[in-house]
Design a protein that fits this description.
heterotrimer; A alpha/beta; B mainly alpha; C mainly alpha; A: alpha/beta; five-stranded mixed sheet; four-stranded mixed sheet; 21 helices; 17 strands; C: MetI-like fold
């Protein structure tokens, strides 16, 4: 059991609300000499505009035509696997050196000695990637310490956005990691065709202070969905149609059945916030920045979630904030509605189809909380990055980029297959429709490690789950029509650290208001307090950044 | 370890000293010369002859309370064990921990124990625990005895050196910088030295050492024994119980620690057991950001059975150790050596 | 009745206290040189442990200088600007801080009364069990929950006492309404104490069992033959054996008044709300650690340590007043 961190849900919330102001601390910190640290003053000290000159040119590669093309950034789908794989990088580009790489892992630690998966991938690269793997749940602590001791930083470091230590953009990136602009900007990237194939949105988030530092792990523009157990609802003759929050509540009341140990919903907060169009951070209203917590949308979403809790349709374990078991409850049919990441969809199928061939879940098409046209805020093109340690040895940087180029080989290539499925006959055997059947050794050796260093654009090809690719890709293609870019979309911003911790009252309110312990009046008071204790300065800070664009 | 020597049979000389100098301070002198064999005499029910038969109501009450205590603890333990032997489908049906055993399987254990990573890590953990506990006990027993004589030179300042570490701690980053500066990154010593001294454990040891009748120690001193000799020959043999307990505290501390390994051990082959077991719990977990871990399909998932099997595997070694500790709790090792 | 007069320790609960204080007054007047000659072995014995602490506890403790800085990990301790006591001001003027301190003290006080004595009582109870086999069995079972993570403990409580837990569900199936102990802020104090007792009471008894094992049965036997009953013997023989370690633990617990189950509380924060579950450690965690404000965390840590030290000194003084040796003598 994980012990060190609170439930992951908490971290997600933190990540979604990276803002705030440090009340009393603000004046205390405003001492001379601080502006050099990028903190202490409200004036923007960093260069924010992402000039297109530092971004790599996008040169798309098509190895296999998708059966369901992507729309407006949605994930393209393949309903069958390619029969012929193409070798993308024909000769291993490496010069046989050892590259030390640090990555988190949400999985079992694979053996390093005699690991045939490592051997196979390293052979394609031509270098030996020596992994320093850390338990993903405590990776933030590891990073905080290692980055404070630059000599311990390995050659290649993967860092998720939500693990960025404070002052990462202002002080750490530029001092610890190599500026990749000269190697990748504009046409320079054409030396690494698979990296050039990564969409520009993903690269935007790799730019800090006007320079390109990271290699992105491309992500989907839509990250969250509201799922329902269509199989269990069908048993009761219900084919749910939800066009507004009101209809959601009505449905929840209809399907709620505590006597049978079956509740309507988990805590749907993230899905409700999306339905009400709550912006990730800021929203421009009449040319003025309005913070998420100040918006009517936020208030309405909180109020609606309160109604859900009040109606008694939320599973008691969810009321008790036992988020880590939420999926288990949903999958076992104890609750019927779940807000989860898009990746949770196929994971649920993976975990349940073997035992329960009828298992099914579906995602609601986006709806607007108060009816009408929904708004989905486009997620940044990447939220995990790998960085190269600063070095005078330019060949090291080039070797790492060349290795990344192999790792970023797209779907349909041999490289992609080996990285994701391992070696045929060792880690998998081909099953029906060419779907790889993992062997026992795969569970031991094949863990997602390389993919965190560099990864091709996202595609969906899990044809082993009947109908899933069609369902998933068409759902996202439909949803993608509602996408809107929030202000300062995709820009890496390092807030002055003293603003960070005033997000906390709102995280607590997001738990307190639905559970009836606090009211919307408390929200108003908190917003007032937020404004007077640093929120206005934070607004000015962001306004300054916005004006630069 | 001398802890084991101590409690089997107390050295005759010590017993003799104890008897000569009078049983525990308040003890009536006239019982001092009771034949030692008498305390071994027991009735059929295991109760010493001198002890009155318990009141049936009291006995019943005691039984009920103890049974209740055991039940309250054992029931959840039982569900954890049953869940670890259940199939994934069974846990989904139960919606969490399994209470009534259904389909049973060893799959979770097989999955964890295959591949050899766990066995290797277990060796690492046992090694760290044994070496660490030995080192900790050595320095702690010495320090505790050194601090056991109030009024000795520098006694209070030295005591405060220890006391302060209980309330002031170092942050994550300075600790890391130190270990890194000493070149201990990736060394097993990084998992031992930073936690080798526990002021709390030293205070516990000292507390028991101070309870030993001064008369015995004075008698030994008159016989010309130095402090080292007194510690080794008298104090330690008399302190079997507390030595065993503190060794357990240290041992459990080393065995359960994982966070220092997260920080200080980069080489995954050197991971201790707890860290490896934790990684099994993370299998197939969704990423915090809801990001998709791509197409990678090793097929391994940490369901409830795996999580509970991890709990069982992490706890069993501790369960096995306890009887050894308990052996040192034998009552009345020697006559009145400890002040009542 | 002759029994009372011959029962050991009767009349004066602390007959030994004087023996624990430094020898005759003359000893204190001895010259430094004589004392060094007499005690050097003792001083030397503490040195290995002190050396380890100096390197691995005190040296990194210097990092707490960040409490007086606007610390940035990259600039390091040498280049971060000093800001005097501003970080402390930020800690103490934060309105949430006072609430956290109050909650912490309330939990500590409650647990001192309802948690602290439980292992002692259990140890006494267990000690009176005659059959060694039964004793070992019970001991081995009850100390296991200590090794469960808080995540698991909370999950177990949720599955039994939660709104959809075993008890509630059984009630519901029989036509009664369920209850939910896990999300009720009013009973939260009781809940976390129950959890703490369940998890750690069994572990806590070990140290008391060790203390009880030092009691010579001959004392019991002697007292019994003098007519002292079961309770008298417990009062005059068994309890005095526990006294030193109980007092030591009590003093240390008082010193640690500002520390209460961090992980346990963070896990249940959203269930009952920060208003009742925010304690000093969680406050520092959210304000300082989560957002990487190391200076804030360091300042709070230093302040907390200082308070703890003062509390230990105070508790120790109190012990002296009651004629106990305490942790240290003047």
């Amino acid at each position: 059991m994980s012990t060190h961190r609170p439930a992951p849900a908490r971290i997600v919330l933190n990540r979604r609300t990276l803002f705030g102001a440090a009340g009393v601390g603000l004046s205390a910190l405003a001492v001379p000499g601080l502006s050099a640290c990028g903190g202490g003053t409200a004036a923007p000290t960093e260069q924010v505009a992402v000039s297109t000159e530092v971004l790599p040119r996008h040169i798309p590669i098509t190895i296999a035509e998708p059966d369901i093309p992507g729309v407006n950034g949605s994930v393209p789908g393949y309903t069958s696997l390619p029969t012929e794989l193409v070798r993308s990088v024909t000769t291993p580009p490496g010069d046989g050196r050892t590259i030390r790489a640090m990555t988190p892992l949400w999985g079992t630690i694979p053996p390093a000695d005699g690991n045939q998966y490592y051997e196979a991938v390293n052979e394609m690269i031509g270098n030996t990637i020596e992994f320093q793997i850390t338990d993903g749940n405590v990776y933030a602590d590891k990073l905080a310490t290692v980055l404070a001791s630059p000599r311990d930083v390995p050659d290649w470091v993967q860092i998720p956005q939500w693990n960025f230590p404070s002052r990462f953009g202002s002080e750490i990136v530029g001092n610890v990691f190599a500026d990749l602009t000269p190697y990748l900007a504009g046409d320079a990237v054409s030396k690494y065709p698979n990296l050039a194939n990564i969409p520009t949105d993903a690269w935007r988030s790799c730019v800090f202070n006007g320079k390109l530092y990271g290699i992105p792990y491309p992500d989907t523009p839509i990250r969250d969905a509201l799922y329902y157990r269509d199989d269990l609802l069908a048993e009761r003759g219900i084919d749910p149609q939800v066009g507004s929050a009101e209809e959601l509540l009505a449905l929840a009341k209809e399907i709620n059945d505590p006597g049978a140990n079956r509740w309507a919903a988990e805590d749907l907060w993230s899905a409700i916030a999306i339905a009400f169009g709550v912006p990730p951070k800021w929203k421009v209203v009449d040319g003025r920045l309005v913070h998420r917590v100040e918006t009517e949308e936020y208030r309405a979403a909180l109020d609606f979630n309160r109604q859900m809790f009040e109606a008694g349709v939320v599973h008691p374990d969810a009321v008790a904030a036992q988020e880590s078991e939420a999926k288990a409850r949903f999958q076992s049919g104890r609750s019927l509605l779940l807000a989860d990441g898009v990746g949770g969809w196929h994971e649920a199928l993976r975990d349940n189809l073997a035992n329960n061939p009828d298992y099914s879940q579906k995602a609601f098409a986006p709806f607007a909380g108060q009816g009408g046209q929904p708004i989905l805020w486009r997620g940044p093109g990447a939220s995990m990055f790998s960085f190269v340690k600063q070095t005078d040895d330019t060949s090291m940087i080039e070797q790492i980029l060349a290795s990344a180029d192999v790792l970023a080989a797209p779907f349909g290539t041999e490289e992609f297959s080996v990285i994701n499925n391992g070696v045929e006959g060792v880690h998998y055997t081909p099953g029906p429709n060419g779907v790889p059947q993992p062997t026992e050794l795969a569970a031991v050796e094949l863990q997602p490690t390389y993919i965190f260093l560099a990864d091709p654009p996202v595609v969906e090809a899990k044809v082993q789950y009947p109908g899933f690719v069609e369902e998933y890709c068409s759902w996202m293609a439909d949803a993608a029509q509602y996408l809107q870019e929030p202000p300062l979309y995709g820009v890496q911003i390092t807030e002055p650290p003293q603003y960070a911790s005033l997000a906390q009252p709102f995280e607590d309110l997001e738990a307190d208001i639905p559970r009836g312990r606090k009211s919307l009046d408390d929200l108003d008071a908190a917003v007032e307090n937020w404004r007077s204790s640093g929120g206005e300065e934070l607004r000015a800070f962001y306004q300054g950044l916005l004006d630069q664009q | 370890m001398s802890a084991q020597i101590g409690d089997q049979t107390a050295p005759a000389a010590v017993t003799e000293t104890a008897r000569r100098t009078g049983v525990g301070p308040g003890a009536p002198q006239r019982h001092d010369d009771l034949p030692p064999t008498r305390r071994r005499r027991r009735r059929a029910n295991g109760r010493p002859v001198w002890e009155e038969d318990p009141h049936p109501v009291g006995l019943g009450l005691k039984g009920v309370v103890l049974a209740l205590v055991v039940l309250v603890v054992a029931f959840p333990l039982y569900t954890v064990v049953v869940t670890s032997f259940s199939t994934q489908a069974e846990t989904l049906r139960a919606g969490g921990l399994v209470v009534i055993p259904g389909e049973l399987t060893l799959e979770a254990y097989r999955q964890i124990l295959s591949g050899g990573v766990v066995t290797r890590a277990a060796v690492v953990s046992v090694g760290i625990t044994v070496v660490g506990t030995a080192l900790s006990m050595l320095v702690s027993v010495l320090a505790a005895y050194g601090l056991s004589r109030p009024g000795s030179l520098l006694h209070t300042p030295l005591l405060f050196v220890f006391l302060i570490t209980m309330f002031f701690s170092a942050g994550l980053i300075p600790s890391y910088l130190l270990v890194s500066g000493l070149g201990l990154i990736d060394s097993y010593w990084a998992l031992i030295l930073p936690t080798a001294v526990s002021a709390f454990n030293i205070l516990i040891l000292r507390n028991f050492f101070m309870g030993i009748d001064n008369a015995i120690l004075d008698a030994a001193r008159i016989d010309g024994a130095g402090e080292w000799r007194i510690l080794l020959r008298i104090v330690m043999p008399l302190s079997g119980a507390v030595l065993a307990v503190v060794a357990l505290f240290y041992g459990v501390g080393y065995f359960n620690a994982f966070f220092n390994a997260v920080l200080y051990i980069n080489d995954n082959a050197k991971w201790p057991l707890q860290l490896v077991l934790r990684s099994y719990v993370l299998q197939g977990a969704s990423l915090p950001g809801g990001a998709d871990p791509g197409q990678a399909a090793s097929g391994a998932v940490a369901g409830m059975p795996i999580k509970m099997a991890v709990v069982v595997l992490a706890t069993v070694p501790i369960l096995l150790v306890y009887p050894f500790v308990q052996r040192h709790f034998t009552k009345g090792v020697i006559f009145g050596a400890i002040k009542g | 009745m002759s029994a009372p007069t011959t029962t050991p320790g009767q009349g004066n609960p602390t007959p030994e206290a004087p023996a624990a204080t430094p020898g005759p007054p003359a000893a204190r007047r001895r010259t430094l040189a004589t004392r060094w000659r007499r005690d050097r072995a003792l001083v030397l014995m503490t040195l290995p442990a002190i050396a380890l602490l100096a390197v691995f506890a005190y040296l990194p403790m210097l990092g707490n200088i960040a409490a007086f800085q606007y610390y940035s990990p990259y600039s390091g301790f040498f280049n971060s600007p000093f800001v005097g006591l501003d970080n402390f001001a930020r800690v103490f003027t934060n309105p949430a801080f006072l609430n956290a301190v109050l909650n912490t003290l309330m939990i500590t006080a409650f647990q001192l009364v309802f948690f602290f004595p439980v292992p002692i009582a259990l140890a006494l109870l267990l000690n009176s069990v005659i059959s060694p086999r039964v004793r070992v069995f019970i001991q081995s079972v009850v100390y296991l929950p200590h090794f469960f993570s808080w995540v698991l403990v909370v999950t177990i409580f949720q599955q039994i006492l939660g709104g959809a837990g075993l008890i509630s569900q059984t009630l519901r199936e029989n036509g009664y309404s369920g209850f939910d102990l896990m999300t009720n802020p009013d009973t939260f104090l009781l809940l976390i104490t129950l959890q703490a007792v369940w998890k750690d009471a069994g572990w806590g008894i070990i140290i008391f069992l060790a203390a009880l094992s030092t009691v010579d049965p001959a004392l019991h036997e002697a007292a019994a033959s003098d007519g002292a009953g079961r309770w008298r013997r417990m009062w005059h023989i068994t309890l005095p054996a526990l006294r030193p370690v109980v007092i030591l633990l009590l003093i240390l617990r008082l010193g640690d008044s500002l520390t209460v189950g961090f992980e346990q509380l963070i896990l249940q924060r959203d269930a009952v709300g920060a208003e009742v579950s925010e304690v000093v450690d969680t406050f520092v965690y959210y304000q300082g650690v989560v957002y990487g404000d190391w200076s804030f965390a360091a300042a709070a840590g230093l302040a907390k340590g200082l308070v703890s030290l003062v509390l230990v000194l105070g508790a120790n003084k109190l012990a002296h007043v009651f004629g106990e040796a305490g942790v240290y003598q003047r």
